[in-house]
Amino acid sequence: MSSIYDDVKSSFRSNVLMKIIIINIAIFLVLNIAHLFAFFGRFEKEYAMFERTWFYLSSPIENNLYKPWVLISYFFTHKDIGHIFWNMMFLYVFGSILGDFLGDKKVLITYILGGLAGAVMFFLIAPFVPNLDKVTFMLGASAGVYAIVFGTATLVPTYSLQVLFLGAVQIRWIALFYLVGTIIGLRGGNAGGELAHLGGILIGYIYISQLQRGRDIGAWIGKILDFFGNLFSKKTKKNNNYNQSKVKVNSNASNAYQKKNNNSSNNVNSNLPNQAEIDAILDKISQVGFHKLSPEEKEKLDKFSGQ
User: Fold this and answer.
1) Which of 109, 152, 190, 273 has the lowest tally of Cβ within 10 angstroms?
2) Which candidate, 172, 237, 161, places its Cα nearest to that of 205?
3) Is 94 exposed, middle or buried (0-12, 13-18, 19+ CB in 10 A)?
4) Cα–Cα distance measured from residue 276 to residue 279, given in angstroms and rounded to the nearest whole number
């Protein structure tokens, strides 16, 4: 029987989405264990200031000029269990869907773009928000997660998720719910975080919309990731898991579709795409990207995702 360590190591190597989640969890554990030692060592205040200074994003923008890495570290850092749990849960759910259609690499690029856009929105708007006119610290993966949520809703708006007490809900309505909540939250105690959410929402929509039009505005991030990935890897594989699209259909959706397709196989007039057509479309996405699909292929994929 494999150990938990082996399972984590395997997930980390084979799945980019799990890498993001594991890194977030690892940083959370390290910082909280250090905080625990500080608590018992009676230097908790000093440690808290150290953590805020060197890991969190802060306003005004000039506070970050001597520590530019906080533009990245802030969206891998979390405050408490509830904070990281909900971020990672939504990251996993929506990141899995986005990865199924576009591949893991696009999930990572969307996440990073969301974090950076959240920081930009925070710096641009915070000076004009009444309760953010003093030094404010910001942390959390929410901006990156929101970018993935809205990117997924832009790509496959009619894709349905099972929501407790509500049943099947299309993800465009889930995204709209969070957009409204973010706007209302701008006058609350987490206004800085809500600004970051808006940045993630905006870039998630823009990135996927442009990708559908054949323009990859996140390609520069992909090149940087490839450079460092090749630099630190012992052996560069021609077709490694990182560069391949993880194209697969949600098992429940696939089973439901196959059952429906089998029941209607004798219906010549059925306009539902068959499994062979869907497989061919997904193979095409993995090779050339979603934006290369024809309008007819996109329509068939949309019908399938809405089943």
Assistant:
1) 190
2) 172
3) buried
4) 5
Q: What is the pLDDT of residues 208-254, one digit of tens each?
A: 999 999 899 999 999 998 888 788 765 545 444 444 444 343 434 44
State CA 68 to chain mean position distance.
22
Query: Which pLDDT belongs to residue 8?
Result: 58
Instruction: For residues 109 and 119, give the distance between their C-alpha atoms in angstroms, rounded to a whole number.
Output: 16
Give the tokens for residue 216.
């990859």
d(CA 188, CA 178): 15
pTM: 0.74
Q: Which three-class secondary structure state does DSSP give residue 218?
A: coil
* Cα–chain center distance at 295: 26
CB 151 within 8 Å of CB 207: yes
Q: What are phi and psi of 40, to 5 degrees?
A: -75, -25
Residue 130 and residue 75 in contact, taking contact as beta carbons nearer than 8 Å: no
Q: Do 101 and 290 touch, CB atoms closer than 8 A?
A: yes
Q: Under DSSP, is residue 242 helix (H, G, I), strand (E, B) or coil?
A: coil
Q: Taking the CA atoms of the chain, what radius of gyration do you get in angstroms?
A: 21
Answer whether 75's CB lies under 8 Å from 90's CB.
Answer: no
Domains of the chain: 4-232 (1.20.1540.10), 253-305 (no CATH)
Asked whether the beta carbons of 8 and 22 are under 8 A apart, the reply is: yes
**Listed residue (32, 31, 12, 33) closest to 23, CA to CA:** 12
- Cα(86)–Cα(82) distance, integer angstroms: 6
Cα 40 from Cα 229, distance rounded (Å)? 39
